[in-house]
Amino acid sequence: MFGVVFPDRSFPLDASSFTQIDPLHWVLDMNTFVGEAYQEVKEVCIFMISGFTLPPGKALAVYVQAHGNPYIFCGAIHGARPSALLHLPWPDPAFAASPGPPSARIGVCLEDLASLPAVADAGALGRVERLALRVGENLFNFMQSFCAIDGNRLVVTADILDRWFIKFQERAKRDPEYLKSFTL
């Protein structure tokens, strides 16, 4: 029916690697798969096995769950989108809903496409947010190196944004891998 690949971490795994809870739900215990290092697994590629088609209006939805917290929707595949690379937004272990050793799961379930959240690609939105955060951190660190502190304020020269952007552009031109360092 479906398979998954964890980029840079696994070979393709088919649905038989998951525990089938009922005819519509499958769960992969990440503790068995990678132990307590599940948070290092940032993405999953899910795909329909060749020759398999979902009924019209149905989708395979992917969720993550850790530490007894509720499942978090990651994205879905369906007839018009037979594969997807999805970000895995693991909840922070500091906010565990249940005590005990870390536990994490990936759930896949067959659902009505219309009932899924409106976000067509939840992973893409998360990547954009993380990229914006990393670029903002870069700008802040640059500004700190050229500023004075006045109480709780950073005092910088009026041209600091221009200077940062020129440096950013020059570095990106010199090193094509530089921009990739901003993705998580």
TrEMBL record:
Coiled coil: none
One GO BP: protein import into nucleus
A Pfam family this chain is assigned to: Hikeshi-like_C
PANTHER family on file: HIKESHI FAMILY MEMBER, PROTEIN HIKESHI
Similarity annotation: Belongs to the OPI10 family.
Domain Hikeshi-like N-terminal: 17-87
InterPro entries reported for this sequence: Hikeshi-like_C (IPR048364), Hikeshi-like_N (IPR008493), OPI10 (IPR031318)
Residue stretches making up the Hikeshi-like C-terminal domain: 129-180
Protein name as annotated: Uncharacterized protein
GO CC aspect terms: cytosol; nucleus
A GO term, aspect molecular function: nuclear import signal receptor activity
